[in-house]
Specification:
Blueprint: E1 5-10, H1 14-24, E2 31-37, H2 41-51, E3 60-61, H3 65-69, E4 76-79, H4 83-95, E5 99-102, H5 113-124, E6 128-129, H6 138-143, E7 148-157, H7 159-162, E8 180-186, H8 187-193, H9 199-207, E9 215-220, E10 227-235, E11 238-246, H10 257-271
Parallel strand pairs: 1-2, 1-4, 2-3, 4-5, 5-6, 7-9
Antiparallel strand pairs: 7-10, 8-9, 10-11
Helix pairs in contact: 1-10, 4-5, 8-9
The chain binds nicotinamide-adenine-dinucleotide.
């Protein structure tokens, strides 16, 4: 990457705005946000104005991703929008030779999609970055990939954090007073039913034994201390357990604060060559 990393942002909601603010405060190395795209115009306008203060000039707001990737000297696109945005725009970004950081990682395990985007990246020389998001332990799963026998992830959230997901539809009007299993199945089934909730399951499955073999359980618990993810893996290299009790983001309870921090750290490490720990 060049000395200054010019970033185009897809999605100016909770995570995109927080990431952009961190970049503006120079917490992500040499990165600079030069372009914003969001189908919700008010969100992107508000963020553009906020970023206009200080040393950086106001980012350019664009109406399409084709415009975004045409911005002069663009190095990286960061997606903080939705699985639908990843499906719609990844190839446009990668075919233009621009690297892509994906937060809505659930899209990457949709059947056939990873093969398509990997081919586009390979062809143009671009890179796809997938931050660890709302969990950790991704390094251990990657390292023991060939020796893994079983990987399970249990995600426990307050009912309000699951509200709106297709997989929660039959529970929307029911009172949940105790921990209740809402879903049990594979990561590939989970991302379709909980597109805004279980990106972590997709990331875990990509690092480990794949989306069909990774087992997912989603639990609604009104007394959950936050967005809790528990990963248990059995492998010939040993048994691993990781538990994350995440604070939900203050403006979007579906998103964990740690996921925002992981995006900032990935961007910082892209910008700063040299020491790499755990990547
Ligand atoms: N990998 C992880 O561990 C992890 C953790 C938390 C959240 N996420 C994902 O990151 C994404 C962003 O989270 P958030 O909390 O900022 O969500 P948010 O709802 O606060 O903001 C998303 C923004 O993207 C825009 N958007 C959505 N689809 C779009 C499209 N197709 N084209 C253009 N704009 C679009 C929306 O208008 C909104 O402004 C979500 O998909 C979320 O599921 C991933």
């Amino acid at each position: 990457m060049p000395e200054q990393v010019n970033v185009g942002l897809i999605g100016c909601g909770s995570m995109g705005s927080e990431l952009a603010r961190a970049v503006h405060r120079k917490e992500a190395g040499s990165a600079r946000i030069i372009g914003l795209f969001d189908e919700y115009h008010l969100g992107r306008e508000t963020l553009a104005k906020e970023l206009a203060f200080g040393a950086d000039s106001e980012p350019i707001q664009v109406d399409t991703v084709v415009e975004l990737v045409s911005l002069p000297n663009l190095d990286l696109v960061i997606e903080c929008a939705s699985q639908a945005a990843v499906v719609a725009h990844s190839e446009t970004v990668l075919n233009a030779g621009i690297s892509l950081l994906v937060m809505s990682s659930g899209a990457l395990i949709l059947p056939g999609f990873m093969r398509k985007v990997s081919a586009a990246a390979h062809e143009s020389g671009a890179t796809i970055y997938i931050p660890s998001g709302a969990v950790g332990g991704i390094d251990a799963l990657r390292a023991s990939k060939a020796l893994l026998e079983e990987v399970t992830i249990v995600s426990t959230k307050k009912p309000t954090s699951l509200s709106g997901a297709p997989g929660f539809a039959e529970w929307e009007n029911k009172e949940i007073t105790e921990p209740t299993v809402i879903f049990e199945g594979s990561a590939i089934e989970a991302v379709g039913l909980f597109p805004a909730n279980v990106n972590v399951a997709a990331t875990v499955s990509l690092a480990g034994i794949g989306p069909d073999a990774t087992k997912v359980r989603v639990i609604a618990d009104p007394n959950s201390p936050g967005n809790v993810h528990e990963i248990n893996a059995v492998s010939k290299a040993g048994k691993f357990s990781f538990r994350f009790e995440n604070m939900p983001h203050e403006t979007n309870p579906k998103t964990s604060f740690l996921a925002v921090l992981a995006a900032i750290e990935t961007l910082r490490s892209i910008c700063e060559p040299g020491l790499r720990i755990g990547t």
